[in-house]
Write a structure and sequence with these properties.
single chain; alpha/beta; Rossmann fold; 9-stranded mixed beta sheet; 10 helices; 23% strand; globular
Amino acid sequence: MKKLGIGIFLLVAFLGIFIFSKRSIVPQEKVKERPLLKYTYENLKKTKFEPSAIALGDILNEGENYVSQMFYYHLKDVVNGKSSKKKVSGLINIPKNKGVYPVIVMMRGFVPVENYATGIGTKKAGEVFAQNGFITLAPDFLGYGQSDNPSQDSIEERFQTYTTALTLLSSLVNLNNGLEASYSGKIKADLSKVSIWGHSNGGQIAISVLEITGQNYPTVLWAPVSKPFPYSILYYTDEFADHGKALRKAVANFEKDYDVELYSPSNFYSRINASIEIHQGLADDAVPVKWSDNLVTDLTKSGKDVTYFTYSGADHNLLPGWDKAMERSIDFYKKHL
């Protein structure tokens, strides 16, 4: 009887070990990585963007009282846990006369990469701002100009425009070092006076930057894209050769793993702490007038300081009406800087 009890005990113990060992080798469900979480507005707000040196390059154009030339800085990029730095090129416009000048960071709208050259989308306005006493910097963004390539993920490439702009703003602390190297101290930037200008999709980037930083960067927006993400990009799918098939697929895959509301600027207007001036052409066929009307309404309801100008018969580039829009933009910056 005693031997029988011992046998039963050993059998139970053996079965327990067997069952436990079987359970232990059952493969655990792999947790899906979600690398694009770092681009939510909340996480970008918490991110410290490492300042880069700003180096000036070749002169591209020279007017009577301004100089346009290349500039370069580096964007810290983390892919699969590995950190690297990507070069970003851009156009800087500088007044010629000796002095200390306010800064305008300019964000252009969408341009097909095959048609792009440094300065497209900001060049003309940047030159006029420089003639009126402002230093302007317009990044090409990754994949454009002499910049390094962006992410191969089309959604991440979009989010990298935010990190590119945010890194440039954090790097302005080094701008005077770059100016010193080229102008021997004759030209300096007043880093207490920094503002933003954005056109079209660049307007959407500008709004996002204001929400992420919460900084008081006086901002002028020309025909800004302001609809919620991802509608803000899906609206333009008819302009693609494949009629947006690849983009719709990318967005659908993104929505499977991420909450799009965490990436939409229309949800974060309350975080804006800057005065804004908006200009909209009434004949704009790229950004519907209703978008800017609604944006102004929403910003006003959120208690923001916003001024709105419309231009009869003006297109997406505010033509005709461009000269008046520039005059008003310059007055806005002089008032708020």
